[in-house]
Amino acid sequence: MKIIPLSEGTFTVDQTKKFIPYAQDKDDLQQRTKGSLLVEIQPFLVITSKDILLLDTGLGFVDKNGQLQIHNNLISHGIKPTDVTKVLLSHLHKDHAGGIAQPGKSELSFKNAMYYINRKEWDYAFEKGFPSFHTEDFLLLQGTDQLVFSNDVGTINDYIFYEISGGHSPFHQVFLIDDEGEKVFFGGDVAPQLLQMKNRFRAKYDYDGNWSMELRNKWWESGELENWTFLFYHDIKTPTFKFKPGI
After folding, report:
1. What does DSSP say about strands 52-55 and 240-242: parallel, antiparallel, or unpaired?
2. What is the dihedral of CA 83, 86, 91, 97, to 10 degrees?
3. CA of 111: how far to CAs of 35, 86, 133, 158, 227, in Å?
4. Which residues fall within 8 angstroms of residue 203, CB to CB, at 6 or more apart?
5. CB atoms within 10 A of CB 34
6. Buried b / exposed e across 141-161, counting CB within 10 Å, b at 16+?
7. How far apart are CA 88 and CA 25, in angstroms?
8. Which of helix, strand or coil describes residue 4?
């Protein structure tokens, strides 16, 4: 497998749910709103023997020419947006689902891809709405044959395993890709950073922080036993971490 982090940059976010760009060489976190979190926004492209997978879609930001940043990131790695075959979404918070559709929301961002979203998460997003969910970002999927609703637990094409984890949000889901003996785990916002995996950390912003903490511990143990590669969506320094045999 080939893994390509698609960083959209570093941001601070506070209770208003606004993502404000942060330049580590010149900005001061202490000058941001009290309680602001410093996070990376980092979807992942995973090229397997069967698919070109996109894991979450970023903020949906565009450049001065109106081009999606995630499209620019893909093209810089020699991948066309139309090459993506599956989009796997951990949940529909705006920093993970903002790139589902093109600017203006007139067409989907990945025209040849199937989008996998948990059915309960979809319903919950429309129930809760703004500011956590920008439903206009993914409304274009509704009623199309590109939308596939996942269940509580299951598999996609016999090699992508998913399950509802809860923790960060009620119907958050995680993915384990097992392709030709390599295992890649994407824990979305339940497992967003390496340090949270190594330490017993309870996040105040989680729907159930205690459960998230227990899940991270379980996944870390499994990863060590089975040599998983972890993908960290919000880690500024360490986008991926791979356990190696005997270490």
Report:
1. unpaired
2. 20
3. 39, 10, 22, 23, 34
4. 168, 196, 209, 212
5. 7
6. beeeeebeebeeeeebeeebb
7. 33
8. strand
**pTM recorded for the entire structure:** 0.94
What are the residue ranges of helices labelled H in the chain?
A: 69-76, 94-97, 119-128, 194-198, 209-226
Please give the biggest Cα pair distance in the chain. 51
pLDDT in tens, the chain (247 residues): 999 999 999 988 877 778 888 887 777 777 778 777 889 999 999 999 999 999 999 999 998 888 999 999 999 999 999 999 999 999 999 999 999 998 776 899 999 999 999 999 999 999 999 888 999 888 899 989 999 999 999 999 999 999 999 999 999 999 999 999 999 999 999 999 999 999 888 888 899 999 999 999 999 999 999 999 999 999 999 999 998 765 5
The amino acid occupying position 91 is H
User: For 2-242, which CATH superfamily applies?
Assistant: Ribonuclease Z/Hydroxyacylglutathione hydrolase-like (3.60.15.10)
Q: Amino acid identity of 22?
A: Y
